[in-house]
Amino acid sequence: MNDTSKASQNLLLAITRSSSGSKRKRVLLIALVAIAVLLIGWWMWPKSNGSNNGSYLTEDAVLGDLSVTVSATGNLYPTNQVDVGSELSGIVESVLVDENDLVKRGQVLVRLDLSKLNDQVVKSQAAVLAAEAQVAQMQATVKESRATLARLRQVAELTGGKVPSRSELEAAEAAVTRAEANEANARAAAAQAAATLRSDQTNLSKASIRSPIDGIVLTRKIEPGQTVAASLQAPVLFTIAEDLARMQLQVDVDEADVSQVKNGQAAYFMVDAWPGRKYPAEIARVGFGAQTTDGVVTYKTLLNVSNADLSLRPGMTATAEISTANLHDALLVPNAALRFTPVTKSAASSGFVASLMPRPPQQAKQVKEKASNGSTSRTLWVLQDGKPAAIEVTIGLTDGRRTQIVSGGLQAGARVIIGMQKSAK
Fold it and tell me: What pTM, to 2 d.p., does this model score?
């Protein structure tokens, strides 16, 4: 019994010692975690020197020039481009021009096979001659009928109406009327034959397809020996551009920018073929009809372009910069200054846990509220005696990098805050 009691006491003592060791380990681990949290909190705790653990980045408000532009992309086109086709069907006998050839108005480009057309003209000429002969024959008949009627009337006058009889006289008058009608019919047939001849002669001339304008051949889509079928629609044989020294640039202006674009505004554009070269242009027309591509609404705008050296070619893609406004001696601030909002004291003193929590962007909320009521007023922060001070201003135009200050308490030379730079630890 004594041995059993001693064994129980030894087991209890071992368990007590083991429990005390585990407890000490847990206390030590908790202490280490607490020290780590305190060190991290001290590292991230904002300093109370008024600069929110960093220094302010500033730029001076300056007087300067501001150029506002609208960007748009499009393609170059000739001022006048004509598709030359054929009204006649037939086999191409010869092609007299090729791409890039300069052509004059009326110059023959293509000739079709003329054999059938020549035969048709000869046939029509013969029909005209036959119709004219028929007219002459009818004229002789009318003359003969009138002479017969005149003699009968003379005899009737000499005999006191006894000879010829009344029926003979009426028959002679009817013969004259019939002869005159036949003459009119023959003249109509002759006119129809002459018209057919003129049509055949016109078709013969159209078999030689001519250039309608002075210009340059852009494309050629016909070869000798091919058959031209113009029964349903006129096939396009050539595309001719008139005077490539003057061209048009068609660009698509976004609906957000179209209110700023006006006729007569100056612009310049660039093409990939000539990197770095800027071509001048001028707005000729701003379209009222909208175009929608992939949900984006744009308006077609035409710019007049000078191409005296022929360095530009139809179809080139161009990026245009349209100058919508030019300001001189305007008070300007960087756009970053309009987006800056200093950290408030409550945020600075909220501690480590609060610093880890996400906060809504205050400046975005402010801009949204300003935009919703249609106001152009904004809050700028300037550095005065090392501390940020708020100034209410009214903004004007912007070029995407700087913004015009129209009114408010801001003066040229003021140091506007554009951001913060964290201090080194």
Answer: 0.61
